[in-house]
Design goal:
It is a single chain. This protein has one domain: Alpha/Beta hydrolase fold, catalytic domain (Rossmann fold, 3-Layer(aba) Sandwich). The chain contains 12 helices and 8 strands. With about 280 residues, it is of the alpha/beta class. An 8-stranded mixed beta sheet has the order 1-2-4-3-5-6-7-8, with helices on both faces. The protein starts with a helix and ends with a helix. The relative contact order is 0.14.
Length: about 280
Amino acid sequence: MTDYAREYDVAAAIPAFMQILADWGTRGAEARAQLSADGRGRLDLAYGASPDETLDLFAPPTQAKAPPLLVFLHGGFWRRLHKNDFAWLARPWLDAGVAVAIVNYGLAPATPLDEIVAQTRRSLAWLWHAAPAHGHDRRRMVVSGHSAGGQLAAMALATDWPGLDAALPGDMIAAAITLSPLVELAPLRKVPFLQADLHLTDALVAGCSPIRHAPAHAAPILAAVGGRESDEFKRQLKLLVEAWPQCHSRIVPMPDDDHLSICEAFGRAGTPLHAAALALLTAKR
């Protein structure tokens, strides 16, 4: 019998877990300050009514053509972390000529999971509408996410965008990048420390498990899970690929990474994951 509590206890599996999160916060604060000071960062832009509904938008130096936009949705099991902890991710993408949006959202238990999904959808709609003012190419919006953020990125692909806003195209999301995504939420009900905050019901599991929905269009998906992650995280990624065969999925092997270092690899130029993601972002559409 699967010990779900152990399989999803990332903190127990990574000895330096809390120190790594603290380092991310420090690096994020430094990057936000620097990128704002040199004119490449617009911080705390409101995309919705809640104080939690803000994003940071980073732009590369002026180019002849509008750059593609990488949207990043952070992890933390929907219970912890903040967009400010991840500004360090932007630097290598800016150096490669890619604009970056790092999105914040409310956290459980104060914000229910279905509302978190709704918030991130609002952020993406806002970014599409804001493209003429901010200069990114809204035809090349790629949504990415790590862990819980991977669930949110996949839910973006399963969104009827014209149904939310008639001005939005059905293929608004050009592609998705999912890192260690959580795409079937039923097992999380068996994890006491998660269920205590998420309050997952049958309706929430059905509504917020991406693979229980169809993708809005056959967008390409780039995916990865660390070789040092638990079997459950590896199974979750397999479920996504099997459930959405209409999407052109590519899995990047990351055999030496754990649940946190795979996020680091995504934000480090020269890694196989970064290179594959850059190729996806710069592909013609």
